[in-house]
């Protein structure tokens, strides 16, 4: 494993946001959702696609807080402009378990 500096770590903007909408993404190569998240006043509302359909229903994601990387450049994923990276952990079956704060925090709060 490579080591990084503290400066490397602080350059990554890991922020908390609340899921506003979750829609099916039928054009995706692998099953995915299009997710819109409110990251607070400083960051605003951003959209991404995420391959998390195996473990999460759309309804259970609504209103949930998630952790996202908000300072990657936007990336075009088919017809969707992905504006942040939803973070998570792979299970042994390569499904994604999303990273969430343990308790509610303000939207836009930065992971320290």
Structural features:
five-stranded antiparallel beta sheet, 38% strand, mainly beta, single chain, two-stranded antiparallel sheet, OB fold (Dihydrolipoamide Acetyltransferase, E2P), 112 residues
Tell me what you see in this structure:
With 112 residues, the chain is mostly beta strands. It has a single domain (6-98), classed as Nucleic acid-binding proteins (OB fold (Dihydrolipoamide Acetyltransferase, E2P), Beta Barrel), CATH 2.40.50. Helices cover 12% and strands 38% of the residues. The chain is built from three helices and nine strands. A five-stranded antiparallel β-sheet has the order 3-2-1-4-7. The chain is globular, with a radius of gyration of 14 Å.
Q: What's the total number of strands?
A: 9
Weakly predicted, low-confidence segments:
none
Tally of helical runs: 3
Question: Strand content of the residues, in percent?
Answer: 35-45%
Distance between the ends? 21 Å
Q: What's the overall average pLDDT, rounded?
A: 96
> Could you give me the name of the CATH homologous superfamily?
Nucleic acid-binding proteins
CATH topology: OB fold (Dihydrolipoamide Acetyltransferase, E2P)
Derived structural class:
mainly beta
CATH class: Mainly Beta
**Biggest beta sheet attributes:** 5 strands, antiparallel
Bulk shape: globular
Explain the layout of strands and helices.
Layout: H1 6-11, E1 14-24, E2 33-38, H2 40-43, E3 45-50, H3 58-61, E4 65-69, E5 75-77, E6 80-82, E7 85-86, E8 88-90, E9 96-98
Antiparallel strand pairs: 1-2, 1-4, 2-3, 4-7, 5-6, 8-9
Keywords: RNA-binding, tRNA-binding
Organism: Desulfoprunum benzoelyticum
Pfam families: tRNA_bind
């Amino acid at each position: 494993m490579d080591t990084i500096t503290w400066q490397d770590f602080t350059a990554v903007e890991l922020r908390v946001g609340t899921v506003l909408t979750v829609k099916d993404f039928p054009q995706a190569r692998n099953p995915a959702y299009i997710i819109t998240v409110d990251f607070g006043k400083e960051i605003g509302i951003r959209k991404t696609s995420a391959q998390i359909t195996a473990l999460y229903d759309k309804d259970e994601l609504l209103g949930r807080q998630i952790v996202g990387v908000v300072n990657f450049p936007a990336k075009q994923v088919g017809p969707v402009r992905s504006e942040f990276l939803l973070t998570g952990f792979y299970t042994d079956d390569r499904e994604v378990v999303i990273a969430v704060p343990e308790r509610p925090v303000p939207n836009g709060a930065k992971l320290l």
